[in-house]
Write a structure and sequence with these properties.
Elements: H1 19-24, H2 26-37, E1 40-45, E2 48-53, H3 56-65, E3 70-72, H4 74-77, H5 80-83, H6 92-102, H7 108-112, H8 115-127, E4 134-136, H9 137-154, H10 162-175, H11 184-189, H12 193-219, H13 226-232, H14 245-276, H15 278-289, H16 293-297, H17 306-318, E5 325-329, E6 333-335, E7 338-340, E8 345-348, H18 350-353, H19 374-378, H20 398-415, E9 416-420, E10 429-431, E11 435-437, E12 442-447
Length: 449
């Protein structure tokens, strides 16, 4: 018997009426659904029932309270051919074991030891900039964070191949749009040029990962980067089991890919918003100019960069790198005040919730000062802001991302002022597996000196 939803939502009168705008106008369409139908929206695409949950309490139910009733949504399940069974895609006991093995390398105390590398690479990058130079800052942030993740997590230098790896990453990320389409699996099986590009890019990234693993195995124990820790790790809850080569490759590829993509996007949108808001940019520079460049590079200084962190938090509110989460119900379950049938897909969109006026007054305004009001933030529902997800699948690299983004933004904005050279107005967006600027972000850099 087919499921008939008692909850409001659009009803398709012809094939594609919902699927097409969900794929082609994703962010405005999700916003429209929540604004039109409320906190629980129900619709169907083909035979599949979908829900859009937009209330913090419902999001808590799915991510935390009833997390055991859900697995990753179909989009990430379809990412397995690209990422394997890494932390982003694995489920159940495998996911729990891999998370236990990976956590020591991404513990906040361990992450603090990476600060010197992050600062040094950021300084090397901005030392090459010239006053008045125009550049694609999205591309610059991608190159910078790719170098950092290779060095900090794999103790590898990729300067000579960073552009080639970046292009391969772009192909991989752009192909994830197919995971949102009902016909994606069919397209992936056809002899299309895009599929050949994807396979070449995938092989290129795997070759880099395999090289780093082989080099580390040949050297033996001694280093303290993430890859070395994973090689030595033993899961005591599973009788001392270590990662096999396939799992090591999958985890490395996941961390290599996700470890730079989200931070680069967060930095790009932060720089864009600063270029659009000169008063905020000046206030940020006041905080940073009170410190020497060397002081900013010290890990102890990160806690004192209060306004810098507020700028990043507000940027990720308006432009969350992870713009939606998907879950699929493994059984009939009550969640968020709704009866959710088995195999239904639940969507929770940071893009929608982070711009909800109930939780965020004047939600479209870029206002980092909102994060400096303790009373306002204490009154905020916990799940009105979830850029790193939550629950047992919360992003394992959250502390790494905060450290890296804070240090890089501080290093850049202490020396350089960002000016937009294109017409003012919203930056065109491309929501793929992460939220990216569609055409990069070309800006002019000016010295504060």
């Amino acid at each position: 018997m087919s499921y008939t939803s008692p909850y409001p939502g659009p009803r398709a009168r012809f094939p594609g009426q919902i699927a097409i705008p969900l794929r082609t106008r994703t962010l405005p369409y999700l916003t429209h659904l929540a604004a039109t139908y409320g906190d629980i929206v129900s619709f169907r695409i083909g035979r599949r029932a979908f829900f859009l949950f937009s209330h913090p309490d419902a999001i808590r139910d799915v991510l935390v309270t009833r997390a055991d009733a859900f697995v990753k949504g179909p989009a990430l399940q379809r990412a397995r051919p690209a990422l394997g069974d890494g932390l982003l895609t694995s489920e159940g006991d495998l996911h729990r074991r891999q998370r236990r093995l990976s956590q020591p390398a991404l513990h906040p105390q361990r992450v603090a030891t990476y600060a010197g590398v992050m600062f040094r690479y950021a300084r090397e990058a901005i030392d090459r900039w010239q006053d008045g130079q125009e550049m694609d800052l999205h591309r610059e942030m991608m190159r910078l964070t790719l170098r950092i993740v290779a060095k900090t997590l794999f103790d590898a230098e990729v300067e000579r191949e960073v552009d080639e790896l970046g292009r391969a990453m772009d192909v991989m990320v752009n192909m994830f749009t197919r995971a949102l389409a009902p016909w994606g699996l069919l397209l992936n099986a056809l002899p299309l040029p895009s599929n050949f590009r994807f396979k070449r890019s995938h092989r290129r990234l795997l070759a880099t990962i395999d090289r780093m693993i082989a080099e580390r195995r040949a050297e033996g124990p001694g280093r303290n980067d993430l890859l070395s820790i994973l090689l030595r790790a033993r899961d005591e809850e599973s009788n001392g089991v270590a990662m096999d080569d396939r799992q090591l490759r999958d985890e490395s590829l996941t961390l290599f890919t996700a470890g730079h993509e989200t931070t680069a996007n967060a930095l790009t949108f932060s720089l864009y918003l600063l270029a659009e808001n000169s008063d905020v940019q000046r206030r940020l520079h006041e905080e940073l100019s009170a410190l020497s460049e060397g002081e900013i590079g010290a890990v102890a200084a990160v806690d004192s960069l209060v306004y810098t962190r507020a700028v990043l938090a507000e940027s990720m509110r308006l432009y969350p790198p992870a713009w939606a989460l998907g879950r699929q119900a493994t059984r009939d379950v009550e969640a968020g005040g709704a009866r959710v049938p088995k195999n239904s897909v639940l969507l929770m969109s940071q893009w929608v919730v982070h711009r909800d006026a109930r939780w965020w007054p004047d939600p479209e305004r870029f206002d980092p000062s909102r994060w400096l009001d303790p009373a306002r933030m204490a009154a905020m529902p916990r799940w009105a802001y979830f850029p790193f997800g939550g629950g047992p699948r919360q992003c394992i690299g959250e502390s790494f991302a905060w450290m890296e983004a804070t240090l890089l933004l501080a290093t850049i904005c202490r020396r350089w002022r960002i000016e937009r050279i294109a017409e003012s107005g919203p930056l065109p967006l491309r929501p793929v597996i992460t939220l990216r600027p569609r055409n990069g972000f070309v800006a002019r850099v000016r010295s504060w000196a």
